[in-house]
Amino acid sequence: MAILVTLDVLLAQRKMKSRELAQRIGITEPNLSLLKSGKVKGVRFDTLEKICEVLDCQPGDLLAYTPDPPAGDAQDAQGAQDE
Fold first, then answer.
1. How far is Cα 29 from Cα 46, in angstroms, rounded to an integer?
2. What DSSP assignment string belongs to 39-65?
């Protein structure tokens, strides 16, 4: 995955529980959990805005880009493990 969600880090830094954040931004805990784990395809800007408001952060504090390794590298690494 190329986009990492660092919401759990910000929650820990702010000493806030997921339950409290979910209540304050008006979404369910299961949906917040999916967002924290990066298992969502997108996030609404109004939700992102509420998260930033409550956690006093910028959108870039919540998301990080890490490029996926090229497909050949992953196959080469697997082949080396099989030998």
1. 17
2. --S---HHHHHHHHHHHT--HHHHEEE
68-62-44 Cα angle (round to 5): 95
Q: Mean pLDDT across the stretch 21-38?
A: 95
The predicted structure's pLDDT at residue 68: 82
Question: If you count them, how many residues does the chain have?
Answer: 83
Report how far apart, in Å, the C-alpha atoms of 78 and of each of 17, 52, 73, 74 are. Answer: 39, 40, 9, 6
Is 4 in contact with 69 (CB distance < 8 Å)?
no
Assign a CATH topology to domain 3-82. Answer: 434 Repressor (Amino-terminal Domain) (1.10.260)
pLDDT digits (tens, 9 = 90+) for 49-80: 999 999 999 999 999 998 888 877 555 555 55
Helix pair 7-14, 45-55: axis angle to 10 deg: 30
Domain boundaries, the chain: 3-82
